[in-house]
Amino acid sequence: MNSASHSDSGAARVVRVELGPRSYEIRIQPGLLLKVGQLLATTVKARRVLVVTDRNIGPVHGRPLAKALQSAGISGDLIELPPGEGAKTWEVCKSLYDICFDQGLDRSSCLVALGGGVIGDLTGFVAATFMRGIDFVQVPTTLLAMVDASVGGKTAIDHPRSKNGIGAFHQPRAVFIDSDALKTLPDRDLKSGLAEVIKYGVIEDAAFFAWIEQNLAALLARDPEALSYAIEHSCRSKARIVGEDERESEGGNRALLNYGHTFGHAIEACLNYQGYLHGEAVAIGMALAGELALRRKLWKPEEAERVEKLILRAGLPTKLRLSDPAPELLHAATFSDKKTRGGQLRFVLPTAIGKTAVFKDVPEAEALKVWQDVPRA
Amino acid sequence: MNSASHSDSGAARVVRVELGPRSYEIRIQPGLLLKVGQLLATTVKARRVLVVTDRNIGPVHGRPLAKALQSAGISGDLIELPPGEGAKTWEVCKSLYDICFDQGLDRSSCLVALGGGVIGDLTGFVAATFMRGIDFVQVPTTLLAMVDASVGGKTAIDHPRSKNGIGAFHQPRAVFIDSDALKTLPDRDLKSGLAEVIKYGVIEDAAFFAWIEQNLAALLARDPEALSYAIEHSCRSKARIVGEDERESEGGNRALLNYGHTFGHAIEACLNYQGYLHGEAVAIGMALAGELALRRKLWKPEEAERVEKLILRAGLPTKLRLSDPAPELLHAATFSDKKTRGGQLRFVLPTAIGKTAVFKDVPEAEALKVWQDVPRA
Fold first, then answer.
1. Are residue A33 and residue A139 in the same domain, yes or no?
2. What ipTM was assigned to the predicted interfaces of this complex?
3. Of the residues A61, A261, A331, A346, which is catalytic?
């Protein structure tokens, strides 16, 4: 693992998310954490800031960020929540509202989400609903949060019956990505993030897919240039899709981002979000979607193999475990996915590397068969 | 009190709220409740509907509405919550999410809020956040909800520290106002609603103010024509203001709707929302704002008197009660209002009947003096 020291060099990469009055910029730069204070002072103009993080990230990145805010003249406290998906519950959400009121935050205040997807989702949801919505800024510290959660404004907490079941669309005012934060990210989390990076290649960009194939070793070795390029490109890809379809409308292209996720979410839900990281479940989901596409003759066996090979090279799974739930249970779980509309299953399937579409006509038996036939190891 | 029977006559009045892709229509018509089914089938196209009401309104208006839905071929259940502001708590909100999941609602479902402001606020908030937002339709049954809550998309639940402290902007897909519902509305609630009607006259429409003066007796006698006109005009007024400033932006005109509300909310908050109906507190608030405007020489004594006289004729209070909290407590409560930004008080003050503006330069001592000098009886 590389050292956790901050590099001061490296030009800023900026991706603009075009959403009319809700447009914002994603800035990607090594060492950016220490500049968040001054950037915040110019982009958000908040009088009060509350930084929300967890007990793992707080000690590593929280203190430098708080210091950066202080030196920019912004008064802000740091709240450390318990780490893990457990923080996305009703109870923690309620305690965060309490803290916001205790701290005297008002409509001109700003929340800063410092952490992975859980912190971003929860903090974003509280920002979306505290006093009917206040500003928030994302400072993602995991690759997954950088390439996925930082774009699109999806915020949520979990309901006991549905992951992300309670939420809102609330765009951040800015996203600050310090690529140096990846230096201390556990290997397994890095790989999990790569699943989403690979996703962008498959759904809409064959050239990017080829780039990942060529640069996978550099990505896994945490080469700063390679990682920054992958983050920028992924954000640009998602920003383009979200810019055309902010609210995931019926028939809109935002649904394409769910490639690998219908199967993936079912795996996660069936296992109660234990055992697989999100990117790992999505990786298996992409393999299953590829297999289903193959059976429907939507794309060629060579293409399916190329995707599967890249997933495996990234250290991600394409098979289920022997101990995983029965195919019938996994199949049933796909129907509880939020993407279902009117009880109808939708699958995002590739028709080529770089091309995907939503299919509503997959017979249930065909989907079940894929679950039954996926190898287990 | 008039009979509760439904009249089938009367042309529909339609007010369009222009909010781009979130535009919707308010339809005002006697007997409309029985037509909600067919209207819903054409405007919302929801596959599943859940009607949310309370135990007072359910038995009177819920059953006819449920029947109307059924005869239009819409499958929908009716949920009766406990009546009163207590329903706007975290706990009831949570139980409503549970019901939504239990009933198998999905993103294509629609919530129908049948009742007063509490039901509208709560149901709207759940619609705003269930699966990141689903459709909802308002069927207001109180005058206050018809002229105020039905326009503008403000939804919320209460936080122990702040009324409406947790909420979202979420526009309904349609508002159906059955003016016949007012036939069974208690007198005190009717008068409470009239406070908001008078408000529209003062803040932006001198001619409407004069119309209310001339037609107050008819309004109090529940003349259907007079009430329908007042509702239509109030909705049109609010729709115009909200159309220009959907999210109550800094410096926007939506703040004008808070005329009487900074003082009014302080009264309500200090008394823990007991003792005064919302319109009653707003009525006192309007009198106090008028007095403050007078002291600042913003308008003429004749104008202040004319407003006060109309408030009194409507059976609404302009004075505090002897038993109300001390002026200092009421004054302190104005600072906890959500309208505060960066700790700075803002007062919406009239400069003439039909003309108001936001003033940020009222010294604290001056505001306190108004609280101290308001008569108590």
1. yes
2. 0.90
3. A261
Digit-coded pLDDT (tens) for A124-169: 999 999 999 999 999 999 999 999 988 899 999 999 888 899 999 9
Chain A residues touching B108 at Cβ < 8 A? 341-342
Closest residue on chain A to B46 (Cα) = A342
Q: Chain B: nearest CA to A30, how far in angstroms?
A: 33
Q: Tell me, yes or no, whether A249 and A345 share the same domain.
A: yes
From first CA to last CA, the distance across chain B in angstroms is 29
Helix, strand, or coil (residue B222): coil
User: At B209, phi and psi to the nearest 5?
Assistant: -60, -45
Cβ neighbours of residue B107 under 8 Å, at least 6 residues apart?
Answer: A338, A340, A341, B131, B134
**The one-letter amino acid at B327:** P
CATH code at B138? 3.40.50.1970
Query: Among residues of chain B, what percentage have pLDDT more than 90?
Result: 79
Q: Quick one: pLDDT band at residue B183, thresholds 50, 70, 90?
A: very high
Task: Flag whether pLDDT at B45 surpasses 50.
Answer: yes
Point out the residue among A129, A165, A338 whose CB comes nearest to the CB of B167: A129
Q: Known catalytic residue: A258?
A: yes
Marked catalytic residue, from A163, A233, A258, A291: A258
* φ/ψ (deg, to 5) at B42: -90, -30
State whether A159 and A207 are in the same domain.
no
Q: What is the model's pLDDT at position B79?
A: 96
Annotation marks residue B154 as catalytic: yes
Instruction: Measure B133 CA to nearest chain A CA, in Å.
Output: 6
Mutation for testing the B interface, residue in A49, A99, A132 having most B CBs under 10 Å:
A132
Instruction: Using the Cα atoms of residue B20, residue B118, residue B250 and residue B304 in order, give the sign of their dihedral.
Output: positive
Global pTM reads 0.92
Count the domains in chain B: 2
**Token pair 């003309």 in the structure block, residue:** B355
Q: What is the mean pLDDT of chain A?
A: 92
The pLDDT value recorded for residue B8 is 46
The answer to whether residues A175 and A291 belong to one domain is: no
Q: How far is Cα B88 from Cα B163, in angstroms, rounded to an integer?
A: 9
Closest Cβ opposite residue A166 in set B130, B164, B341: B130
Give the number of A-B residue pairs with CB atoms closer than 8 Å: 88
pLDDT tens for A241-282 read: 998 888 888 888 899 999 999 999 999 989 988 899 999 999
